[in-house]
Write a structure and sequence with these properties.
Blueprint (H helix, E strand, L loop, with lengths): L2 E6 L6 H7 L4 H22 L15 H8 L7 E4 L5 H15 L3 E3 L1 H18 L1 E2 L4 E2 L1 H25 L2 E6 L18 E2 L2 H12 L6 H4 L24 E2 L6 E3 L1 H9 L6 H11 L10
Parallel strand pairs: 1-6, 1-9, 2-3, 2-6
Antiparallel strand pairs: 4-5, 7-8
Helix pairs in contact: 2-4, 5-6, 6-7, 9-10
Length: about 280
């Protein structure tokens, strides 16, 4: 990873957001959504598999093989971190990035759902008691820890391998500022994955693209699954730090689009870095 951005879409009535998600703007919405859906479905097809092939003669599962097949390292330019509630918006945004800049995105929610599918398959085979017709608590804890470790490893590798990460910051990302548990109006989230991804992006190694190292095109250098029904389930707040991310506005997105070069996606990323380079540098900048 080279750069991280905080894209503030807290105003979901903004024209840019409306054009992405509102079906009344058919020329833009349908086009971007179709592109995003195709990318999303491509990831789905890669990840789907069968649990049986990971067993050895003793019935043990190979963790390395499960990670390789269920959470493969998909080649992408941008990692999009977001609330699962904004999934449709983010799919449209990924279509916009691809059409306007030729940039491929990794949508992290394409992994979340499969983590649940994997966990369910393991639990059905290893944690379910036919006698009591219930799942055994201790075994469920053990299986969950393994699957979440695999998921965390996968997400960390994807963030590390993508050139940049964009956090889609909407009202769905954080708990309200007046929440009784939100001390000093700090940013809190009930999504453990947003918390983990922001923490990873703050700590992960910063890698300058080779084109910069070689002196090519460098004007400036800097830079649980929420789909569950929480009406009667556990909610835990996590304090989230996003200060290490460079602020990215909708105005800058539009400027970026106008200056884009569809024939060169690396140049497009360089343009984005230049547009945002006059801001306060990120901690790792």
């Amino acid at each position: 990873m080279y750069k991280g951005f905080n894209l503030d879409l807290s105003n979901l009535t903004n024209e840019f957001v409306v054009n992405l998600k509102n079906r009344t703007h058919s020329s833009s919405y349908e086009d971007y959504r179709s592109i995003g859906d195709n990318l999303f479905e491509k990831h789905e097809n890669i990840i789907q598999t069968d649990l049986k092939q990971f067993k050895n003669m003793s019935g043990q599962l190979s963790g390395n093989q499960i990670i390789k097949k269920w959470f493969p390292e998909i080649k992408a330019d941008i990692f999009l971190s977001h609330s699962h509630k904004d999934k449709d918006l983010v799919i449209c945004f990924s279509g916009w990035l691809y059409k306007e800049f030729g940039l491929t995105s990794f949508i992290d929610s394409t992994v979340w759902g499969y983590a649940d599918d994997l966990l369910r398959m393991i639990d059905d085979e290893y944690c379910y008691s036919a006698k009591t017709q219930t799942y055994q608590y201790n075994k469920r804890n053990y299986s969950t820890s393994h699957v979440h470790m695999m998921l965390s490893t996968s997400l960390m590798n994807m963030i590390d391998n993508c050139e940049c990460i964009i956090f889609i910051n909407t009202p769905n990302s954080f708990t309200p500022a007046n929440d009784i548990n939100n001390i000093n109006n700090s940013r809190n989230t009930i999504s453990p994955w947003i918390f983990a991804e922001m923490l990873m992006s703050a700590m992960i190694r910063i890698q300058m693209p080779s084109r910069f190292k070689e002196g090519i095109v460098m004007d400036s250098i800097q830079a649980s699954n929420e789909s569950r029904d929480f009406s009667k389930s556990l909610q835990i707040n996590y304090g989230v730090g996003i200060e290490h991310l460079t602020e990215l506005s909708i105005t800058q997105l539009e400027e970026w689009r106008k200056k884009s070069n569809l024939l060169n996606k690396e140049k497009n990323l360089d343009i984005l870095y230049k547009i945002t380079s006059n801001q306060k540098e990120a901690i790792y900048g």
